Amino acid sequence: MVTGKQDGYSVPDASTATRTDTPLRDIPQSIQVVPQQVLKDQQAIRASEALRNVSGVQRSIAGQILPGWNVIASYAYTDAKITQSNDGQQGNQLFNVPFNAASLWTTYELQTGNWKGLGFGLGLFYVGDRQGDLANDFKVSSYLRTDASIFYRRNSWKLGLNFNNLFNVNYIDVGQSRTSITPGAPFAVVGSFSVEF
């Protein structure tokens, strides 16, 4: 059984790495829950000791290629299995957790001239095949989604347009069972305006 609870603060999106309003759920991440009993049995008291139980690799690299041209790339390999089960599902893969996920996002912002602050972004988001339920009765297909953006930043304000799912790819975002499947969002244009004080 997998359960969860959210306490405290929640951050739905971030603009630091991508310089856009990319939702955090669209940036590949891997999460693995280590049972409390495992930590007790191993007498783990530091985070580094607990992390030895995580079976997966996640790497990100971000940088500035040239002035105004930023790139962030990430890759995650996750082998998330059920380690204890009363339902005969021990050893099964967790649903909606792909073995492979990757993203590449790049932006370019003009640095000089009358249009200084005008920028463009392009991103690719790949999610590999994954199990559709805890019984591992069916798989959800992989997908590659493309997003784009155009923005203009001046002094303390920013105006932007995000083009999500640019090529209107049909994909399954979340699967919980054969009768509970959430399709991915179709092509959408989202505008934003922000002012920093």
Model description:
The structure is a single chain. With 197 residues, the chain is mainly beta. It has helices at residues 36-41, 47-51; strands at 13-14, 22-23, 56-66, 69-78, 100-109, 118-127, 130-131, 139-140, 143-154, 157-164, 172-177, 180-183, 188-195. 18% of the residues are buried.
Quick recap:
The chain has 197 residues and is mainly beta. The protein has helices spanning 36-41, 47-51; strands spanning 13-14, 22-23, 56-66, 69-78, 100-109, 118-127, 130-131, 139-140, 143-154, 157-164, 172-177, 180-183, 188-195.
Tag the structure with descriptive keywords.
disordered N terminus; 197 residues; mainly beta; 6% helix
Percent strand: 35-45%
Structural class: mainly beta
Oligomer: single chain
- Overall mean pLDDT stands at 80
Order of helices and strands: EEHHEEEEEEEEEEE
Q: Which regions have little confidence, pLDDT < 50, spanning 5+ residues?
A: 1-14
Range of helix content: under 10%
Helix tally equals 2
What is the end-to-end distance? 46 Å
The radius of gyration computed from the alpha-carbon positions, rounded to a whole number of angstroms, is 20 Å
Secondary structure layout:
Blueprint: E1 13-14, E2 22-23, H1 36-41, H2 47-51, E3 56-66, E4 69-78, E5 100-109, E6 118-127, E7 130-131, E8 139-140, E9 143-154, E10 157-164, E11 172-177, E12 180-183, E13 188-195
Antiparallel strand pairs: 1-2, 3-4, 4-5, 5-6, 6-9, 7-8, 9-10, 10-13, 11-12
